[in-house]
From TrEMBL:
<dbReference type="InterPro" id="IPR003697">
    <property type="entry name" value="Maf-like"/>
</dbReference>
<comment type="subunit">
    <text>Homodimer.</text>
</comment>
<dbReference type="GO" id="GO:0046983">
    <property type="term" value="F:protein dimerization activity"/>
</dbReference>
<dbReference type="GO" id="GO:0032259">
    <property type="term" value="P:methylation"/>
</dbReference>
<dbReference type="InterPro" id="IPR029001">
    <property type="entry name" value="ITPase-like_fam"/>
</dbReference>
<dbReference type="InterPro" id="IPR012967">
    <property type="entry name" value="COMT_dimerisation"/>
</dbReference>
<dbReference type="GO" id="GO:0005829">
    <property type="term" value="C:cytosol"/>
</dbReference>
<feature type="domain" description="O-methyltransferase dimerisation">
    <location>
        <begin position="289"/>
        <end position="367"/>
    </location>
</feature>
<dbReference type="InterPro" id="IPR016461">
    <property type="entry name" value="COMT-like"/>
</dbReference>
<dbReference type="Pfam" id="PF00891">
    <property type="entry name" value="Methyltransf_2"/>
</dbReference>
<keyword id="KW-0808">Transferase</keyword>
<dbReference type="GO" id="GO:0008171">
    <property type="term" value="F:O-methyltransferase activity"/>
</dbReference>
<dbReference type="InterPro" id="IPR001077">
    <property type="entry name" value="COMT_C"/>
</dbReference>
<keyword id="KW-0949">S-adenosyl-L-methionine</keyword>
<dbReference type="InterPro" id="IPR029063">
    <property type="entry name" value="SAM-dependent_MTases_sf"/>
</dbReference>
<dbReference type="InterPro" id="IPR036388">
    <property type="entry name" value="WH-like_DNA-bd_sf"/>
</dbReference>
<protein>
    <submittedName>
        <fullName>Probable bifunctional dTTP/UTP pyrophosphatase/methyltransferase protein isoform X1</fullName>
    </submittedName>
</protein>
Length: 613
């Protein structure tokens, strides 16, 4: 069965897998690809230090493996295969690249390095298209890489040696095989599992799609780059290629326009499959209409939050519309409209007994819950809404682009405006931090530090999580006086609170409190380059050799930068920086052994150690 038709594109070609890896052979043949196996003789000896990133090294090795096979086959028969695929898998922990162990001691060294920690597995892949011209070999190379994060449990020496003696580690990068007994060592995996096993099949199919079906301008509204087009989409495209119907029309019948995944953020012009016209009229732009109305839905949510509707229904629901209107001291007709829209938006449920919260509303929209996002809704309504009404003039007049098109930080300037505004801002940050603090605190093992200072730590949510996770850690929250003054209102009791103190100050002007570990969570993105360097250099001067700097920022790997949330936020807060940019920033300011890890779905975290100046 060929599930992904792009694999079928290679059906009549002479495809060679330049790899001895049985795992790669299995993954590709399971996917329906037919190929010959010719292991590469390229010696994996490129100088690692000459590559800017580990994945550049893996991609180059993959390319050299494939090119070696292509040229050997060409020399032998004066005929080259059509396509040669090469791959190289490496394990990266800190700045160290691990390949296959040379002996048991080497395997032990590798596994000890990985023990209890998170690491990255990169596979570089090269797809080499070959052709023979006048006895000469011409090649065209496309290459890409995939990264997967893997965390090992804390493992005893005994277990490590038992595993090594099983013989499994010897032919595998990093000295383990996640697909077999090595799977028992692994606590979690973020990303493509097959990438760890040696071949990122999903990304490979996307790459083939890119190569074999480059989108025509008129197709761009239908096919999303980031996904492997659905089978139906491909069939349409193949038909077109074979002289079939026009793409606009081929979407008819409710098949061609399907999105490849369940992401609701479909391209706005993507036709709704069920509603396409059958007579040459353009399909209904359902996604676009949804975008046109998006602001109305936000305002309904904000208004319901402001009226404390979800609080009322959490405690007293279900309630009839008239009773809700009475309690809100609002007009009955208007209240009923609002309630019905909330039902349509999935925020409320309506039965014969009246209106009640949906689960998501009770969890995230009632104000007192552990996971409440009320503060964020309130802040977006009171402030960000207004900022976005200035988008048109800001684009025309050209604001400071380092701060996004709107030229203002969402938070800027309001801390000093009024106590109420400061509180609103703090509630918004508090809401957001609750979603991410645990991931930030546990992305790395920070138990070697005994004191930490969370710069711009606001209500102390992350400080609390750090103190909870590391029982020896004393945590200082350093923030502007107007913030620390109000932070008391956000504190909950608990033993870890004794190890948290709030210190008022400005991190651009005042001496930073002493600490082994400095933390900047969602701070750097808000500042333009000059301020950012000033802040990092102040931290670097305060941090003792061996101390650490932990930076948490919105996840912004290349593939994510184009997605909806970071893009919208970038309008008011500037373009998010990638993990590599953060790694470079820390290195530039005197931090070494810089490691990057994913912290949940929203953030990435970077940890560096202060070098001896
Ligand atoms: C981390 C990890 C790696 N591996 C394997 C995948 C690769 O086969 C190997 C990494 O070595 P590679 O040098 O990438 O590949 P290889 O030597 O096996 O084959 P060739 O060079 O001929 O293409 O490690 C696993 O099987 N499971 C794992 O969990």
């Amino acid at each position: 069965m060929v599930l992904c038709p792009v694999i079928g594109k290679l059906q009549h070609k002479h495809v060679v897998l330049a790899s001895a890896s049985p795992r790669r052979q299995e993954i590709l043949s399971n996917a329906g690809l037919r190929f010959e196996v010719v292991p590469s003789r390229f010696k994996e000896k490129l100088r690692k230090a000459s590559f800017a990133t580990p994945y550049a090294y893996a991609m180059e090795t993959a390319k050299q493996k494939a090119l070696e096979v292509a040229s050997r086959m060409h020399q032998k028969d004066l005929r080259a295969p059509d396509v040669v695929i090469g791959a190289d898998t490496i394990v990266v922990v800190g700045a160290v690249i691990l390949e296959k162990p040379v002996d048991k001691q080497d395997a032990y060294r590798m596994l000890s390095r990985l023990n209890g920690k998170e690491h990255s597995v990169f596979t570089g892949v090269a797809i080499v298209h070959c052709c023979s011209k006048d006895g000469r070999l011409d090649t065209e190379v496309s290459e890409f890489y995939e990264e997967t994060t893997v965390k090992f449990s804390e493992l005893s020496e005994e277990l490590l040696w038992e595993y090594i003696n099983s013989g499994e580690p010897m032919d595998k990068a990093g000295g383990y095989g996640i697909q077999a007994q090595g799977g028992m060592l692994v606590e979690y995996v973020h990303g493509d599992f097959l990438n760890v096993v040696g071949f990122p099949l999903n990304h490979f199919c996307k790459e083939l799609a890119r190569l074999y079906y480059p989108p025509r301008p008129e197709d761009l509204h239908r096919v999303r780059h980031a996904s492997i087009p659905a089978v139906d989409t491909f069939e349409n495209l193949s038909d077109m290629e074979a002289g079939g119907s026009d793409p606009g029309q081929s979407a008819e019948g409710g098949r061609g326009g399907q999105q490849a995944d369940g992401d609701r953020s479909q391209a706005p012009g993507a036709p709704d499959a069920a509603l396409n016209g059958a007579d040459g009229r353009p399909p209904l732009p359902a996604g676009l209409l949804e975008l046109m109305d998006g602001f109305k839905a936000s305002k309904v949510l904000f208004t319901a939050c402001k009226l404390k509707l979800f609080d009322m229904l959490k405690d007293q629901g279900p309630l009839k519309a008239v009773d809700i209107a009475r309690k809100l001291n609002a007009c009955a007709g208007g209240t009923e409209w609002l309630l019905d829209v909330c039902v349509a938006l999935g925020l409320l449920e309506k039965t014969h007994r009246g209106y009640s919260n949906t689960e998501v509303a009770t969890l995230h929209l009632a104000s007192d819950g552990e996971h409440s996002l009320q503060g964020l809704a309130e802040y977006n309504d009171a402030h960000v809404w207004g900022v976005f009404t200035r988008l048109g003039p800001a684009v025309q007049e050209g604001a400071d682009q380092t701060r996004g098109a709107l030229g203002v930080m969402e938070e800027e300037g309001h801390l000093s405006q009024s106590r109420e505004m400061t509180l609103q801002f703090m509630r918004a940050m508090h809401s957001l931090s609750k979603l991410t603090a645990h991931h930030v605190a546990t992305a790395f093992d920070l138990s070697r530090f005994t004191s930490a200072c969370d710069l711009g730590g606001c209500t102390g949510i992350l400080a609390r999580e750090l103190a909870q996770e590391y029982p020896r850690l004393q945590v200082t929250v350093f923030d502007l006086p107007e913030v620390t003054e109000l932070s008391g209102g956000f504190q909950r009791g608990g033993r870890q609170t004794e190890r948290i103190r709030f210190v008022p100050g400005d991190f651009f002007k005042d001496n930073l409190p002493e600490a082994d570990l400095y933390v900047l969570s969602r701070i750097l993105q808000d500042w333009p380059d000059d301020k950012l360097h000033k802040l990092l250099s102040r931290i670097s001067s305060s941090c003792k050799p061996g101390g650490g700097l932990l930076v948490a920022e919105a996840a912004a790997e290349e593939k994510e930068r184009a997605s909806r949330r970071p893009r919208l936020r970038a309008l008011s807060a500037g373009q998010p920086r990638s993990p590599d940019e953060h790694r470079w920033l820390l290195q530039r300011h005197g931090f070494q052994d810089v490691r990057v890890a994913r912290a949940g779905d929203l953030l990435h975290v970077v940890l560096g150690t202060r070098a001896v100046p």
